[in-house]
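Field log, afternoon session.

UNIT: design team B
ACTIVITY: writing a sequence onto a fixed backbone
BACKBONE:
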């Protein structure tokens, strides 16, 4: 097992090298450039240098006056030495800005993932065990509704009902107007109240796919020979389903759960924007639009590392849920 992990780690480093290069090359080719915007602003000040001189100076300052390959190795050296620099757009150190926005998205993603698993997997199992029944049709309809609803429509509908009509939640933001005057518990509850609708939005649009996936895999397992043998031996239906069939259904589900690791840190761009939640998805989007290479490089490289780690964790979990898997 240790040899397997070492081989995977070496392969992950090689993959990460090329992924980081692609990220840097794409960022260098973006039509938007923060240094151009900043040079334009500086050149408009009274008695300032012309735009062209500012542009040359800023490009040299940020290492954009050299080719993509030399510039990439400069950025790679900074990443390896944990010198992430300052964000061009937010004018603070990259790690400081990242730390200030990541935890909101992480909390939202974790809660939404747990609720998704608690709701979708049991409903998928129920739909499979009651195939072609009214229950199966109802669960399938719910799943298809969740899959088909656009995020912006669902978020707007929830705000219309629960914020405008009922007045239970605020329309936008992470905190209320009187947040600073509240006690510590009051501030916690205030933030929790503002996260209810965004989390509900994420859960509704996510459960459909996992529900259908669970149902499909459960049906495939229930039609296997060993399930018919278990039933022929006189085992109860609950033991057949939950002790035999569901355990084998876990194998493809582990793939989905392991692949969701980057999603916990990537944020939900559309949802965060619609609800004005200052999360990492919202911040990274505007950093990329502005051509903020230091912040975008760190954020995308971080997601690449999480993706590789998620794949490794998924492969290791296969051996936990299926004893037939051997790493040799």
């Amino acid at each position: 097992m240790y040899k397997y992990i070492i081989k995977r780690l070496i392969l992950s480093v090689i993959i990460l090298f090329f992924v980081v290069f692609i990220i840097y090359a794409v960022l260098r080719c973006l039509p938007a450039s923060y240094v151009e915007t900043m040079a334009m602003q500086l050149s408009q000040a009274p008695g300032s240098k012309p735009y062209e001189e500012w542009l040359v100076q800023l490009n040299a300052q940020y290492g954009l006056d050299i080719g993509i390959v030399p510039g990439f190795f400069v950025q790679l050296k900074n990443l390896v030495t944990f010198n992430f620099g300052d964000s061009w757009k937010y004018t603070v150190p990259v790690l400081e800005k990242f730390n200030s926005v990541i935890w909101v998205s992480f909390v939202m993603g974790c809660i939404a993932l747990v609720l998704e698993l608690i709701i979708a997997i049991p409903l998928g199992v129920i739909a499979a065990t009651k195939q072609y029944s009214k229950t199966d049709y109802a669960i399938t309809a719910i799943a298809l509704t969740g899959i088909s609803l656009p995020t912006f429509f669902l978020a707007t509908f929830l705000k219309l009902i629960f914020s405008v009509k009922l007045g239970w939640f605020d329309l936008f933001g992470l905190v209320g107007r009187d947040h600073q005057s509240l006690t510590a518990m009051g501030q916690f509850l205030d933030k929790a109240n503002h996260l209810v609708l965004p989390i509900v939005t994420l859960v509704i649009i996510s459960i459909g796919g996992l529900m259908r996936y669970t149902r499909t895999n459960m049906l495939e397992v229930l039609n296997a020979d060993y399930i018919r043998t278990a039933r022929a031996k006189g085992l109860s239906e609950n033991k057949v389903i939950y002790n035999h069939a569901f355990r084998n259904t876990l194998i493809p589900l582990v793939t989905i759960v392991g692949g969701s690791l980057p999603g916990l840190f990537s944020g939900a761009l559309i949802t965060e924007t619609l609800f004005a939640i200052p999360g990492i998805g919202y911040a990274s989007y505007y950093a990329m639009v502005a051509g903020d290479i230091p912040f975008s490089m760190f954020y995308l490289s971080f997601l690449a590392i999480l993706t590789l780690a998620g794949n490794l964790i998924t492969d290791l979990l296969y051996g936990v849920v299926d004893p037939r898997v051997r790493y040799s």
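LOG NOTE: Residues 32-83 form one domain.
NEXT ACTIVITY: expression trials, pending approval
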